[in-house]
Design a protein that fits this description.
Shape of chain B: rod-shaped
Structural class of chain A: alpha/beta
Strand order of the largest sheet of chain B: 1-2-3-4
Shape of chain A: elongated
Radius of gyration of chain B: 30 Å
Largest sheet of chain B: 4 strands, antiparallel
Number of helices of chain B: 1
Largest interface: A-B, 43 and 46 residues
Radius of gyration of chain A: 29 Å
Strand order of the largest sheet of chain A: 20-21-23-25-24-22
Order of helices and strands of chain B: HEEEE
Strand content of chain A: over 45%
Largest sheet of chain A: 6 strands, parallel, barrel
Oligomer: heterodimer
Number of domains of chain B: 1
Number of domains of chain A: 2
Chain lengths: ~400, ~120
Amino acid sequence: MTKLKASALFYAMLIATLIGIISGSLILFAYLNNLLFLNFDINQKLLLNAASGIEILKGRSMDIGEEPTKVQLFDQEEDEVELSIKPWGAFEIATSIATANRAKEIKVAQMGWVIKDNIALYLTDNNRPLALCGNTIIKGDCYLPKAGTKRAYIEGKSFVGQHLINGNTKKSNTKLPEISPEFLSQIQYYLTKSNNQKVSEEFPDSALNSFSQPTQYLISVDDIIIDQYYKGNVVIISEQDIVIRQDAVLEDVLIYANNIIVERHFKGNVQLIAKDRIKIESDVALQYPSVLALMAERITTKNTIEIDQNTNISGIVFLNKSESLNKELRLRLEKNAMIEGIVYVKGEVELKGKIHGTLYCDNFHLKTPSSIYQNHILDGVIDYSLLSDNFVGSVLNTGSNKHKSLVKWLF
Amino acid sequence: MAVLKTTFKAGTLLEAVMAMGVVVFCIGAGLTIYLNTFKAFNHYKNVKANLLLNDIALDLKTNHKIAAVLMELEQFNVNVNILPTKYDNIKTLQMSLEEKGGAVIKTRKELIYIEDEDN
């Protein structure tokens, strides 16, 4: 009698296991695929909601401060975002957080004021005419002294243009339009806040901090030499001087010191706020949105911002002093140096380079090998028409023709 | 009396039940996969609609052409609406992508800041 082995159960189990594994993995794949699409949908919605929050902050139709405030986006719908806004030098940082269940999207943007007024020059009326010579170009509307403008002949050069001013002229006041106190306190905000912060025991080689995190302070009582990588929500403060080497990589950071020197060939995007002096050496490129701010509180040998040859600065340059300070501040812009943006000087300007944008100043200073002239410009350029339409930033947040706009998205 | 000398291989009841179980499991798994694939196809359509609406919204905002309009594309219609909100200078940009037959595939809503016209 032949005995046959009946192992059908074993085979059935084996095949069932195999089919189970294959089917299981296919089901898992389909489930994860489904989940991925659902997450994509939720993230898209959250991104739109977060971006909508930033739009509300542009409109500024409500009081939003540093503390996150919940705001409903659409009527009769549950979508809401948490909005907050904090100062960041001459600009502001707007944060919008949209959440749903465990998903979260954060949008952080740098914002500033936009004032489209077509003003190329605002020169305080100090009873002296503005004298132009050489290849000087002033293009855009101008606020000038009652004495007007005239041609001058200096260093063997007479004025070569057809028109002294290429634009409309209006009479200026004896004082510059004032920078709003809110803007000045905004600039000093982190310096005031740093009083509660500890001095860094060891100054770190580099720092990278997201704007969705608390601000990182790097404070030193001594001089600081910056030659490493610092990016994002970082404030560097020295109670003495700061030197920025050409190898340094700086992006979006705020720097406070008494004196700040930026060495040759440096490239970056930074806001420099000094009490006594800022010196930008030749061949430096400070990319938009950079800021040079001199907030003079005491008389020193040099209350100046000096910008050397072949240097380009895109953003805001301003020199301001307290009312009690009885000394003229000075901005010196060398040949082939260029500022694109807004320049505000409570003092005098030595203009040999170019300003593509707006200049507010009390008077001009011209020093030649043979003499010194007041309210004279030799071979200087102020051209509002060359300022980019997309430029955002102002020191004057007054006037009806103003609104907030986005400077850049931050991480 | 004849004596059966040949032994036939046969399954037990338990084996039959197991085999039926395998078949049921296979059908179940197959159906689930089929339904998920069908759903995924809808998801793809949804993603495509999302990306298309994003592109159109970006174009409208970049070129400052924010106005209510019905765009007739090759396969779809895009309905753009501008609705008021409780915030000053803020409008709701509502867009929906519809099939030619009229069925709505995807709706998109966002707030946009609109400068005063005199600015």
